[in-house]
Amino acid sequence: MADITRRLGWRHLRGAPTAHIRHHRSGKLLHDGPGLSFWFRALTAALSEVPVDDRELAMTFHARTSDFQDVAVQATVTYRISDPALASARLDFSVDPDTGVWRGSPLEQLGTLLTETAQQHALAVLARTPLASALVDGVTAVRERIAEGLGAEPRLPATGIEVVAVRVMAIRPEPEVERALRTPAREQIQQEADKATYERRAVAVERERAIAENELDSQIELARREEQLVDQRGTNARREAEEHAAADGVRAEAEATRTVRLADAEAARSVRLARAEAEGAREVGDARAHAQAAWLRVHSDVDVATLHALTGTRLAENLPNIDSVTISPDVLTGLLSRLGAGADGGGGEVGA
C-alpha cells in the first residue's frame, strides 16, 4: 500500500521498491516505475499500484482418483507480475488518492485464476491414476502437469503474470482409507518385528544354555582346583609347623646361651661393684680418720678461751633470727642486782 500524505490541498505519494506506480492525469501518463515519490492533486490524478515482488499462493483442493477415491492435494504456486502496465490494464490495481488503498481486490482475482487453473490440470491427472499410484508417484506427476498447464495458459501472459515455481507438498486420501492402507504395512512390520523378537529370544536361550554349561564346567574345574589347593595347604601347613619347631628349638637354645652369658656377666659385674664399694668405703674411712686427727691436733694447741669463743660463734650461727627481746621487770631487777653486786666486788678489789 502506497504512503500518501496531505499538504495544503496537495498529496505526496511515496512508493515501495517492490511496488510499480503508474500516475495518470487527464489520460496522460506522468509517472511510471517502482519506488517513486512525487506530489500530485487528488482531483485530477489516477493512481495504480502493482506489486512486482514474488508472491506465494497456497492452495488445497479435493480430487478423485480413477478408482473413485477422494484425495486432498496441497500445493503452492509462486508467481510475479512481470508486466505491470499490462496487469494494471487488465485488472483493477487503482488506489484511493487519499488513503493509498486498492479500490478493488486484484490479488484475489489473480489467486482465483491461478487456483482454478492449477486445480483443473491436477484433476485431469488424478482422474486417470489409481489411488495406490497417486500416493506413490502422484506428487511428481501432479506438479509437472500443473507447471505445464500454467505455462501453457494464455490468460496468464495476457494479464502480465509469470509463474515462477510450482510445489506439491502432499496427496492424502481420506482418514479411513489411509488407515486401511496402513494396516497391511503395519501388520507386515509387526510380523517382522515378532520374527525378530522370536529369533532374538532363541539366540538368548542358546546363549543362556552355553553360559550355563560354561558355568558348570567352571564349577567342576574350580572344585578340582580347590581339592588341589586343600592338599597343598596341608603340605604347606606341615612344612611350616616343622620349620616353626626347628626355629623354636634354635631360638630356645640361643636364649639359654644368652641367659647364661648374661648371668655370668651380671655376677662378674656384681663382684666388681662390691669390690669397688668396699674400696671406696675404706678410703672414705681413712680420709675421715685423718681429718678427725688433724682437727684434734689443731684444737689441742689452742687455749680454752679461744675454744669457748669458737663454740659461741658456732652456737650463734645455728641459733634462729631474733627480731625483738622482751625483758620483764623481774628479769631486769635481777640483772641490775647482779650488775650492782659485781660492781661492788670489783671496787673492793681495786681499793685493796
List the helices and strands and how they pair.
Blueprint: E1 3-7, E2 10-14, E3 19-25, E4 28-34, E5 37-40, E6 45-51, E7 55-64, E8 70-81, H1 84-90, E9 94-95, H2 106-126, H3 131-152, H4 155-159, E10 161-173, H5 175-300, H6 304-318, H7 329-351
Antiparallel strand pairs: 1-2, 2-5, 3-4, 3-6, 6-9, 7-8, 8-10
Index terms:
352 residues; disordered C terminus; three-stranded antiparallel beta sheet; alpha+beta; four-stranded antiparallel beta sheet; single chain
Tell me about this structure:
With 352 residues, the protein is of the alpha+beta class. It has helices at residues 84-90, 106-126, 131-152, 155-159, 175-300, 304-318, 329-351, and strands spanning 3-7, 10-14, 19-25, 28-34, 37-40, 45-51, 55-64, 70-81, 94-95, 161-173. The strands form 3 sheets. Strands 4-3-6-9 form a 4-stranded antiparallel sheet, covered by helices on one side. A hairpin with a 2-residue loop joins strand 3 (19-25) and strand 4. Helix 2 (106-126) crosses helix 3 (131-152). The termini are far apart.
What general form does the structure show? elongated
Major beta-sheet overview = 4 strands, antiparallel
In the sheet with the most strands, the strands line up as: 4-3-6-9
Low-confidence stretches: 346-352
User: Structural class, from helix and strand content?
Assistant: alpha+beta
Number of helices: 7
**What share of the residues does DSSP label as strand, in percent?**
15-25%
